[in-house]
Amino acid sequence: MTDRLIRVVIADDEPLIRAGIRMILTSDRSIAVVAEATNGREAIELVRAHAADVVLLDIQMPVMDGLTALAELRTAAPAARVIVLTTFGERENVLRALEQGGAGFLLKDTAPTELIQAVRAAAAGDAYLSPGAARHVVDQLTLGRAAVRGEEARRRVGALSGREREVLALLGEGLSNAEAGRRLHMSEATVKTYVSRILAKLGCENRVQAALLARDAGL
Predict the structure, then answer these.
(1) Which residue has the higher pLDDT, 91 or 110?
(2) CA nearest neighbour of 208 among 85, 58, 95
(3) CA–CA separation, 76 vs 11, rounded Å?
(4) Residue 142 forms part of a structural domain
(5) Is pLDDT above 60 for 136?
(6) Distance of alpha carbon 206 from its chain centroid, rounded?
(7) Does 95 map to a domain?
């Protein structure tokens, strides 16, 4: 996404929320907000009409909620990357969004710099896990499901090499490729290669799903 603007659609039924997000994103010269939607149905139509790269999608919206829209976007606009907007009161919904292939999630009171960072990461084909708030939510989400999901997660992780498991464990901590590289004394490019291999072996669509799997496996 270095040769053109990152095209973003904001989907939220609250005008003030949309206005605040637009103001933050348009302060960055690499990002253009191309449309705003008030519900999930509008979001799908606008993403297709504007060939959006990234969608900021609220969960609670009228007409069509964010989770339903996310599922439909997988078919209607598979190239668009979806970041879910949420609150602490919607933890179970957040987990469902991540499992359905969302590129990450943000709390609505997140810092402006983090919002921009998340959009850039999603546009680059990466997934975004906040090192602070998002990690706390994921910790809470995975705790209740660990007993049920743990055995399956450990079976899948068993197919990885020792070094791949080390990289996966750092993904579970929310580390970026550069941070994981410093921890393991590898180059960022080498870590990126390991991540691609790990995703393929585990059948995960993105880093978020791999991170959840790492937590379930107890890494």
Answers:
(1) 110
(2) 95
(3) 16
(4) no
(5) no
(6) 8
(7) yes
Task: Please tell me the distance from the alpha carbon of residue 27 to that of residue 54, in angstroms, as a whole number.
Answer: 16
Share of the chain above pLDDT 70, in %: 85
User: Buried (b) or exposed (e) across 34-49, using 16+ Cβ within 10 A?
Assistant: bbbbbbbbbbbebbee
- Does some domain include residue 135? no
For residue 182, pLDDT over 70 is answered with: yes
Q: Cβ–Cβ contacts within 10 Å for residue 171, how many?
A: 29
| Contact between 22 and 10 (Cβ < 8 Å) | yes
Whether residue 115 sits in one domain with residue 154: no
Instruction: Give the structural domain span for 87.
Output: 6-128
CATH number of the domain to which 124 belongs: 3.40.50.2300
Q: Check whether 92 has a pLDDT greater than 80.
A: no
For residue 197, what is the domain's CATH number? 1.10.10.10
Taking the whole predicted model, whether its pTM rises above 0.90 is answered as no
Mean pLDDT of 154-172: 90
**CA proximity to 18, closest of 53, 61, 49, 48:** 61
- Contact criterion met (CB below 8 Å) for 157 and 165: yes
Task: State the total domains in the chain.
Answer: 2
